[in-house]
Amino acid sequence: MKTEIILTELQFKAVRSSGAGGQNVNKVASKVMLSFDVKNSQGLTEDEKTLLITKLATKLTSEQILILNCDEDRSQLKNKTIVTKRFLTLIESSLIVPKKRKATKIPRAVIEKRIKAKRNLSEIKQNRRKPNF
């Protein structure tokens, strides 16, 4: 992953925030929408693209474009930095390949311990019965 190239491929769009806020919300476009085209990115290898597409499938559009929004702050510049940081952490966490699980055999001592415990419980229950004369 080449972060410098990816940061140049980001497209930002400023829109008006939704919700309550009075006259300022109606005038100022402080909400920032970040869009990133995963399929046509030059900063990612083909393997990284397929990994991102599979891991971020719920967040991508049908054209494989990732869209993130931020309207946490009243400043457009702060929202832009917040959404950029959020994007980078999302990409980095999605590119981590989990280790494959190795199947392990149950140790013989564990099996013997379980069988011994079953046998012990069986003897306890047999000792509870009435004696047979």
Automatic annotation (TrEMBL):
Highest taxon listed in the record's lineage: Bacteria
InterPro entries xrefs: Pep_chain_release_fac_I, Pep_chain_release_fac_I_sf
Any Gene Ontology biological process: rescue of stalled ribosome
Keywords per UniProt: Hydrolase
Keyword Transferase in annotation: no
Gene (name only): arfB
Family statement: Belongs to the prokaryotic/mitochondrial release factor family.
GO molecular-function term, one example from the UniProt record: ribosome binding
Domain Prokaryotic-type class I peptide chain release factors: residue ranges: 16-32
EC number of the protein: 3.1.1.29
Protein name, per record: Aminoacyl-tRNA hydrolase
